[in-house]
Amino acid sequence: MASPTVEIQHQSAAVFPGAWKLPAGRAVTLQPGAAGQLGIAHGSVWVTRDGPHQGPLNDLGDRILQPGEKLSLQRGQRLVIETLDRCRPAYFNWDPLPLAAPARAADLAQSAADLRRAVALGAGAAGRLLAALAGLAWGWAEGDRRARVDPAFSAHSRACRAPGAMS
Question: Which of 4, 81, 89, 145 has a 20 to 30 A CA-CA distance from 41?
Fold first, then answer.
């Protein structure tokens, strides 16, 4: 859809604060340099946007927007806006989406320190677990050795393990 170039007037606070006026019966093409939202302040507009389109297969990007409705656009996505009423102008807003704040060096340094601390704590816990398992294995081995050396210990151990034995 080819549209002639239209001079859009920015309105004062008395009409629609921060809104741009699209004259009646006219169309304009927008191709934003950054992602943002088109909002309709007054009047009804017909918009056609380039893909990619979402929704049913017959959705070609055409929409009718009423006051209060918004439409998100990606950087470089082309949009044609046309007034529906051939006698009255429409007013719209363009609000760029805020850019994500870059990670600060202090945040990265803190994250690295936290990771080092977590690795050290994990290594310490793993070492204590291995020491406990070794001690347990040593205890079992020591118990078996005492049973072979001391027949009284062996008899006592068998009696404790016997069915119905009291603990």
Answer: 4
In terms of residues, how long is the chain? 167
Q: Which two tokens stand for residue 66?
A: 């009423």
Beta strands 20-22 and 27-30 are unpaired
Between residues 134 and 163, which one has the greater pLDDT? 134
**The predicted structure's pLDDT at residue 97:** 84
8 A C-beta contact, residue 30 and residue 89: no
Tens of pLDDT along 106-139?
Answer: 778 888 888 899 999 999 999 999 998 888 888 7
pLDDT of residue 90: 92
Tokens of 132: 């406990």
Q: Which residues touch 77 (CB under 8 Å, ≥6 apart)?
A: 31, 32, 49, 50
Write the single-letter amino acid at 142. Answer: E
Report the CATH fold assignment for 9-96. Answer: Jelly Rolls (2.60.120)
Give start and end residues of each alpha helix (H) in the chain.
105-149, 151-161
Are 88 and 21 a contacting pair, CB within 8 Å? no
